[in-house]
């Protein structure tokens, strides 16, 4: 299913974009130092790790709190972590032999256009003495954030320029903090790490007439280290240095909620809770420290007839005061906040109507794409299809129907026999045939962003959309030969899933023809000649 604003959850389109043949435009940060960051010590910058959403070299645009987009033909020239590290190093300047050296490590947690007029960068960094173990307590651990206005009508180039300025601002903040460090004072040896858990004793307040089952909840990147998070203000993140959770946060939260809901009872219906942990932290306020929990949760029936039952999407949020600022007090406060959320979830579960009476299970029909080659593809190179991953909405086995662009339906008793990640590359491979010796090879990877029946005022048709990257097999490490979005439709002749699958097969064959045309038009890579050393006299 293609990405639409009408859907409740919008995925990150890693390769979304136009279907033009223009080569990708590559960008880098402005590496000229401004001279504004003036550290009194040498700062050696290790390569920063980008967050998952930033790992694909795309220039990211944040449309809203939950929606990310990218520029289709504009990407970073190299890994964002590498670019950010190089820019910080340029701002800190060349090392001086007479000065002590510190080492900076960390993560890029934000590097994006925000809305239509700003760019934002945020780095979580640790600073230690050069040569110190990564397990030692850092001299400085802090999250730095900066925003810079985009000057003029928004273009990728101006976004990159604004991100350069934001990174320069962060470098200046880091230098100021480094200059305030007292390296002459004796560093207290690190205490033994203390592990914490939640209070798993049921409060008895969450009551429901059905069983409530909690799946493992996804964590935000900031919670991935199992450190106990502190948020002193809206834009800063810190951690307790010697206190950690005894288990990962997902397991702790799920275990606490299930303790509140109690053991399942035979004969009762079951509601399943899934979702993600948005916040699980000590929040500092004028009234003191509080435990702050925020869950983005889905409640769904998990018994007979669950597919027909309504779903409930809701954000649950609660706070509870902590007795003091310690990690132990925060763990207790977070336990109390989760108990309040459990009460709210139990009340909402009561609103889900009972499942319909059990009916005989209908026969399910399985379908595959027509793997017989059409014989229409003529290509002068070998084409090998590597991983072509479907978007999240296409990972299920449903054969989808999109009505009027905003309503998504499916064939109730018809499924794909296997995943589109296997079916689509297999069909394309059948169209191009087996590889032949003596020919150059093009490797193809990408994303299936649309594979569905569409229904609108003009009738029904099959729609296939692929966002692909083409690379020469013997040009490893070089930029892709082509990034392009392919789209094709085919009329559906008849009714039902069988007719839709036949049309999807024909639409995929049409895309194979377009790929072959582009492969035939690719300029072949230049292989450097190997110089033969002169014979010894």
Radius of gyration: 28 Å
Count of distinct strands = 23
Strand content: 35-45%
Please give the alpha-carbon distance between the first and last residues: 69 Å
How would you characterize the largest beta sheet?
A: 8 strands, mixed
Estimate nothing, just give the exact number of structural domains: 3
Query: Residue ranges: pLDDT <50 for 5 or more in a row?
Result: 1-21, 186-190, 304-308
Helix count, DSSP H or I runs of 4 or more residues: 6
Instruction: Average the pLDDT over all residues and give the rounded result.
Output: 84
Helix content: 10-25%
Structural class: alpha/beta
Shape estimate: flat
Top-tier CATH class of the largest domain: Alpha Beta
Could you name the CATH homologous superfamily of the largest domain? ABC-type transport auxiliary lipoprotein component
What CATH architecture of the largest domain would you give? Answer: 3-Layer(aba) Sandwich
Query: What is the chain-wise order of helices and strands?
Result: EEEEEHEEEHEEEEEHEEEHEEEEHEEEH
Oligomer: single chain
Indicate the CATH topology of the largest domain. Answer: Rossmann fold
